[in-house]
Amino acid sequence: MCSHPESEFMKTTTITAHLVQRLREFGIDQGFGIVGDFALRLFGRLDDLGFPIRITADEQGAAFAADAYARLRGIGLVAVTYGVGGLKVANATAGAWAEQVPLLVVSGAPGMLERQNDPMLHHKVKTFDTQLDVFRDLTVAQAVLSEPLTASREIDRVISAMMREQRPGYIEVPRDMVDVPIIASDGPLELPAPFVNEEALAEAVRLVMARLEGSSNAVLLAGVMAWRRGLQSHLLELAEILELPVATTSLAKGLFPERHPLSLGVYMGAVSPHSVVKAVEGADPLLAFGALYTDLTMGGFTAHFDLARVINCTDTRVHVGLTVFEDVPLSAFLPALLSAGRSRKNSASRDYSFIGCDFLPQAIPLTVESVFSCLEAKLDERHGVIVEPGDSLFASVDFAGPGWCLTSGYYATMGYSVPAAIGMGKADPTLRPVIVTGDGAFLMMGLELAAAHFHGVNPVVVILDNDGYGTQRLLLDGPFNDIPTLNTERLPDVIGAGKGYLCTSQTEFWEALHAAVADGDFAIIRVKVPKNQSSEALRRLTEALAKKV
Ligand SMILES: Cc1ncc(C[n+]2csc(CCOP(=O)(O)OP(=O)(O)O)c2C)c(N)n1
Ligand SMILES: [Mg+2]
Q1: Any ligand 1 atom below 6 A from CB of 412
Q2: Which residue's CA lies nearest to atom 20 of ligand 1?
Q3: Is residue 500 within 6 Å of ligand 1 at its C-beta?
Q4: From the centroid of its chain, how far is CA 207?
């Protein structure tokens, strides 16, 4: 629950002013979305307040942009009109639910007076509550701001629940409510810290430290909830103090620097190289922070863990083998473990310098692996990588990225990457997004590049063009995996900006990438890879799954 101390002053404000105040308190200053008549006044007022809503080509793109923004800044806003806009962001909201992203959907809606006598208004489906009903299932908290007396508390309730649970939320603003005066507290929204059982916390720390001290092959596994709870620097320090190797899950790729000597890279069950699987599955203990054990992040459930050797720290509890410490959330446990580690450490801290990587391109046909090897050698910390579900996601397991890597790695919705680049570019203008996507996914959302450029975000887009739905072909081939060919390298002509490249050899790709990285304009690098050739990572998965059945 949010707190409003008795002594706090109340003030008269408006729904948009209160919403913007709260969003600014969480450090965000813009949203993404597409307007419509039910949302025009809402958009207008947000803009008047200096809180711009960045347009995209499609509402789903806006929601993906807001999702990426939220992953990097803690919360993101997508603003839409009623029905036609709102229902288009249902898929992205579902992804935000699954991957625990605080994505706030704000939808304009018919005014309360207009709803009287249940007229057939455009964009309405069954009832005026149809859209709300859809979002009840997709979000952690919902509010229709129909009452001036409760509107500010309703906004606070939704945002508090989102931040507490790290899930999306939904707010509907009837258009005749936008300018109605409301009463709101003058103070900041205070989020109470989660309840911690201090005794259980101390005992869990003691037990885990004892397990680590007696071990010679402990490994840390960094999961996405450690990212959501802002524990990146704690994890890094803990690994360095204890000199423990760290693997991340694919959803948390980049949470631990992948070019750090202690990084094992991504653990994704049988998708990962054998050496990583051996280190993670053979670890005793395996100390996992905030990992989500989903089919995709665990390589189609090919992960083999001996639970007696796993210490699993979740958002609410710590499991040490079969012992469970309730009310010991990750956000309290990791800092406490770090303090214990700091006090026991006696050696001087080592200096860790990042591992560089090189690649010597040859005039031979490209493979998915060689594309990633070139990327590994060319990209530095000024780049943020986004990989699309498909072979791009699987192959990225063998790639040590320069920093953050965003992906729809569990919900696995195609169409995420290019719009997510808009969110990434706006959330952190120091990062230039580099996208790796399949040709099928690009067909779904490629025009969002025009929106990215429009907003001054100029990504490098690498399209792995294997003539259709490669990952589906592996499972069952048929005409449903064939797609129209797009000469995507010519898209810059249509957009009137950017550079396009078509590459078939390693040397061509290397040169194109070199030019794209040096140039500030956006670049599309279409890479032709053989139709039935998949990455080694995907082949490892296919082999493991074949053994399973
Ligand atoms: C929105 C959405 N529709 C359908 C799918 C199912 N699907 C998963 S991978 C895939 C093919 C992807 O093709 P492409 O982007 O070319 O990548 P490739 O598999 O060739 O690497 C499909 C259709 C999905 N994940 N998301
Ligand atoms: Mg493809």
Answers
A1: yes
A2: 470
A3: no
A4: 33
- Ligand 1 pocket test: pick from 471, 477, 534 the residue with the most ligand atoms within 8 Å of its Cβ: 471
Report in angstroms the alpha-carbon separations of 342 from 256, 326, 349, 514, 533. Answer: 19, 25, 10, 43, 48
Ligand 2: centre distance to CA 484 (Å): 11
Does the Cβ of 409 fall within 6 Å of ligand 1?
no
Question: Which residue lies with its CA nearest to atom 3 of ligand 1?
Answer: 414
Check whether the bond before 285 is cis (ω within 30° of 0): yes
d(CA 445, CA 450): 10
In the three-class reduction of DSSP (H, G, I as helix; E, B as strand; rest coil), residue 56 is classed as coil
- Tell me how crowded residue 6 is: count the other CB atoms within 10 A of its CB: 4
Neighbours of 364 (CB within 10 A): 11
Read off the pLDDT of residues 475-529 as tens digits, 9 standing for 90 and up.
Answer: 889 999 999 999 999 999 999 999 999 999 999 999 999 999 999 999 999 999 9
Q: Report pLDDT digits (tens) over 426-436.
A: 999 999 999 99
Q: How distant, in Å, are the alpha carbons of 51, 103, 106, 523 from that of 170?
A: 18, 9, 6, 35
Instruction: Give 241: exposed, middle or buried? Use CB within 10 Å, 0-12, 13-18, 19+.
Output: middle
Ligand 1 neighbourhood includes 466 CB (under 6 angstroms) = yes
> Rounded to 5 degrees, what are φ and ψ at 313?
-105, 120
The one-character DSSP state at 3 is B
- The answer to whether the CB of 469 is under 6 A from ligand 1 is yes
